[in-house]
Specification:
With about 425 residues, this protein is an alpha/beta fold. About 30% of the residues lie in helices and about 25% in strands. The protein folds into two domains: about 200 residues, Enolpyruvate transferase domain (UDP-n-acetylglucosamine1-carboxyvinyl-transferase, Chain); about 210 residues, Enolpyruvate transferase domain (UDP-n-acetylglucosamine1-carboxyvinyl-transferase, Chain, Alpha-beta prism). Helix 1 packs parallel to helix 2, helix 8 packs parallel to helix 10 and helix 10 packs parallel to helix 12.
């Protein structure tokens, strides 16, 4: 099985371009189901989750082509409405296709999404919202059947939690529904704005994306368009964590600094300095960062849960102690046992992790437990003295186009074997 081999520890120095955002492109790919014609998506990262989404589209009848970060989707022949179990299991966020498939074909069948590495990840908010918009829902032998024979109809939808996926599914179901939908307590992540911008460019009528109240006036037709996806703020956070762990100076190009403000503020407190330009950030990190006051993950614009594991990895070599509170997922700490193999000193109690910074980390053999947990192991391994080997790197490939290419541009001693 392929492994990452990382030689620590070297200061990082260099520059890399940040890839397009995984969590922006996945709902935009789902949105192409609604479009009868050729959509062109640029700055599309080459990820296993993107390839899984392409397989879902092709299974529905779309024609797809992916070349040099440009994905072309011809949705004119889409007639399918089922996401097969094997694809649902491969990518939990396949549930993002629900709203668009029902919007296009009046029905959808998916297998109930299993939990994932982060704990139970139900889709009750998605189901309740789609039901409100006119889809009847039936559970049958592990499959969920949605049908809206008379088409979807706009309504007021209140989310009990500002779920990113549920917000995206409501937008995708409402954008070509009849009438108006007002979504309350919507997620405000930048990826929601990117989806709304894409759909509005196709002729949609969506207002308020990025705030907690989004108004969608259904339109009869969406037209194919060309669109470039926003940069990946979590990949950028990963590389900031990497230089914070090792010390040094790196430049990130093709970033949106506004999307990183909560992450930058935490690393500033730890002793890193930043030079911020319109779409570029330079990070100056000391030899050893300091611990920071309590970090709590929150929905946007709070500190992102996805950036937590890589921050904890960097803090594992800090001076001082940091209390970290995870408020979004049940089980986000599975990777911490693997971090401890590298010498990290972290105590967890429920959703709280207490990180005691160590002067040195030491190389070990470890395995990824999930996507961002795997990225955390890479960050810690860059600081660990000796040669670290990381297994089950398929997790990392779900969200990082080429973490070896990017880190080698900073002078890291890393390769895939
Ligand atoms: C999106 O997941 C992201 N994935 C996640 O990124 C990210 O961690 C998460 O939002 C939070 O920001 C994509 O965009 C593809 P949620 P999503 O619905 O939509 C509970 C990564 O590493 N919930 O906001 O699944 C849920 O269990 C991934 O790139 C319900 O209870 O997140 C979780 O505890 C990991 N019922 C919380 O809400 C529901 O119907 C947040 O979930 C839906 C969600």
């Amino acid at each position: 099985m392929p492994e990452l081999v990382i030689e620590g520890t070297y200061k990082l120095n260099g520059s890399t371009k940040i890839q397009g955002s995984k969590n922006a492109v996945l709902p935009i790919i789902a949105a192409t189901v609604l479009i009868n014609g050729k959509s062109i998506i640029k700055n599309c990262p080459e990820l296993s989750d993107v390839m899984a989404s392409i397989r879902i589209l092709e299974n529905l009848g779309a024609k797809c082509e992916f070349k040099e970060n440009v994905l072309t989707v011809d949705g004119s022949k889409i007639s399918g409405y089922t996401i097969p179990e094997v694809l649902m299991r491969e990518m939990r966020s396949s549930s993002l296709f629900l709203g668009a498939i029902i919007g296009r074909n009046g029905k959808a069948i998916i297998s109930s999404p299993g939990g994932c590495e982060l704990g139970p990840r139900p889709i009750d908010l998605h189901i309740k919202s789609l039901n409100l918009l006119g889809a009847t829902v039936k559970d049958k032998n592990g499959y969920i059947l949605f049908s809206a024979d008379k088409g979807l109809k706009g309504d007021n939808v209140h989310l009990s939690f500002p779920s990113v996926g549920a917000t995206e599914n409501v937008i995708l179901a409402a954008v070509t529904a009849s009438g108006k939908t007002v979504l309350y307590n919507a997620a405000k992540e930048p990826e929601i704005i990117d989806l709304a911008d894409f759909l509005n460019k196709c002729g949609g009528d969506i207002k308020g994306a990025g705030t907690d109240i989004i108004t969608i006036n259904g339109v009869s037709k969406l037209n194919p368009t060309e669109y470039s996806v926003i940069p990946d703020r979590i990949v950028a956070s990963t590389y900031i964590s990497a230089v914070a762990a090792t010390g040094g100076e790196i430049k990130l190009t093709n970033v949106n600094p506004e999307h990183l403000s909560s992450v930058i503020s935490v690393f500033r407190e730890s002793g890193c300095e930043f030079k911020i330009y319109k779409d570029e950030i330079t990070v100056y990190a000391p030899d050893r960062i300091a611990g920071v006051s309590t970090v709590r993950t929150l929905t946007y614009p709070g500190f992102p849960t996805d950036a937590g594991p890589m921050l904890i990895a960097a803090l594992s070599a800090s001076k001082g102690t940091t209390v970290f509170v995870e408020t979004i997922f049940e089980n986000r700490f599975r990777y911490i046992d693997e971090l401890k193999r590298l010498g990290a000193n972290i105590k967890t109690e429920g959703k709280i992790a207490i990180v005691e910074g160590m002067e040195n980390l030491s190389a070990a053999q470890c395995v990824c437990t999930d996507l961002r947990g795997g990225a955390a192991l890479v960050v810690a391994a860059l600081k660990a003295k000796g040669t670290t080997r990381i297994g089950r790197i398929c997790h990392i490939k779900r969200g990082y186009e080429d973490i070896v290419r990017d880190l080698r541009k900073f002078g890291a001693e890393i390769y895939e074997e």
